[in-house]
Amino acid sequence: MARKHTARKRSQHQASQTTLLVVGEGPDDQAFIKHMHGQLRVSRTIRPKIEKQSGGSPGNIIDNAARKYASQDFDQRFIVLDSDIALSQQERDRARRYGFRLILWSPICLEGALLEVLGERVRDHETAQQLKARLHPQLTGHHTEKAAYAVLFPYEVLEAATNPSVAEVRTALAGQLI
């Protein structure tokens, strides 16, 4: 009988978890979001699956994520994209139809958002490539590894970050509706 009781407790615990799907545009996004989740993990009832796409246009990323995760059940779904390529209303509607909320890194891209968190100014004329060239040398490892973000973005920095896109990702990882 003890086995049945243990099994029942385990299934009750699993049922109370909130499952999140967070799909980043590429491996940089995935690495940073995984790092962020590891730092901010405040509840064992939130279980995120943090994935990546292989870049491309916003429409392709939305379609690929929808196709790949259509058969999987999640309480909330997010796609995190760079904002250097404007999304059409049709792409926004398609994401919503597939059950995804969009979060757009700003300014311009993940690196722009992170530079802003560090207090560095992002100029209007800078491109995503220029921002990558500014941030990546400051990291303690390869930009596609979550450990590379540990020194610059500890818990205190992430918790205090006022950049709107970083705050949205923080809120999503906490399981709060945006």
Can you tell me the CATH architecture? 3-Layer(aba) Sandwich
Q: Rough shape? A: globular
Order of helices and strands: HEHEHEHEHHHH
Query: In which range does the helix fraction lie?
Result: 40-55%
CATH topology, anyone? Rossmann fold
| Overall radius of gyration | 17 Å
* Uncertain parts: 3-15
Please provide a written account of the structure.
The protein is α/β, with parallel strands linked by helices. It has one domain (about 15-175): Rossmann fold. The chain has 8 helices and 4 strands. It has helices spanning about 1-15, 25-40, 60-70, 90-95, 110-115, 130-135, 155-160, 165-175; strands spanning about 20-25, 45-50, 75-80, 100-105. It has a 4-stranded parallel β-sheet, sandwiched between helices. Helix 4 links the parallel strand 3 (about 75-80) and strand 4 (about 100-105). Helix 5 packs across helix 6 (about 130-135). The chain is globular and about 40 Å long.
